[in-house]
Design a protein that fits this description.
With 85 residues, the chain is mainly β. It is built from no helices and seven strands. The protein has a seven-stranded antiparallel β-sheet with strand order 6-5-4-1-2-3-7, with no helix packed on it.
Length: 85
């Protein structure tokens, strides 16, 4: 597992580029930061995320912690993150 922390940023908005549904035991999506960096994000709880919407990702020190869907208030821990080249 590879993590790319965003220094001094406890939460950050990401645009959802693609959702992959459930790949047991986690859901999977492709998200893009405002910087243009893209990440595959795995999370265990269904969030009802739509392609094109923005989600809020919370960080704690150097770890990606939670993902929040502001449209419906659902939140999930982040299981794994991988940067896409």
């Amino acid at each position: 597992m590879v993590l790319w922390p965003l220094k001094n940023c406890p939460e950050y908005w990401f645009k959802v580029l693609q959702t992959f549904g459930l790949e047991y035991p986690n859901y999977k999506m492709l998200a893009q930061a405002k910087s243009g960096n893209r990440y595959i994000v795995w999370y265990p709880d269904s969030l009802g995320i739509d392609v094109g919407q923005e989600v809020l990702i919370d960080f704690n020190d150097d770890s990606w912690r939670t993902i929040d869907n502001p449209r419906n208030g659902k939140k999930s821990d982040i299981a794994k993150v991988s940067k896409v080249n």
